[in-house]
Amino acid sequence: MPIALVLDVDGVVCPASGFSPFGELVEVGIALQPVLVAPALCAALTNLAAPPDVTPAWLTSWLPQTRQAMRSPFPGHAWEQIELEPGGDGWPKWSALNAWLARNPQITRLAWVDDDLTDRAPLYTKELRRRGLDALMIAPATDYGMTPHHVARLNHWCARHTL
Predict the structure, then answer these.
(1) pTM of the prediction?
(2) Strand pairing of 33-37 and 26-31?
């Protein structure tokens, strides 16, 4: 059962506060300002994306060239970028995700991590499940990004479905 792991960058991989619950941050490049990431989080995301039934993708306002210019340990240099699309539903990321899912009907399960999902997650989860997708939405706090708890939740969710 194919899994899509869809991630935002700012507020998810790169905490806005300059602090991560994963510990030390390192600079991996510049995107308007220095980009700081936690190597432990980057390694965890790389591991999550490694199984053959996982399709990792970025859904971010960052241009692919910006992501690809980041140095190691920034994850997912070769991951697909879901291009933002204007839509009538008010949020370009939701329109873009729907268009991408339509082009990838083999995806049956979706884990989406975006700090902007906070108020949207219940509605989007319900809509995706109505369409037959098993959906997990995670909305990290922008200041700290993903936490070890979020990664554990993703690992558990992915493992639970592959047994």
Answers:
(1) 0.94
(2) antiparallel
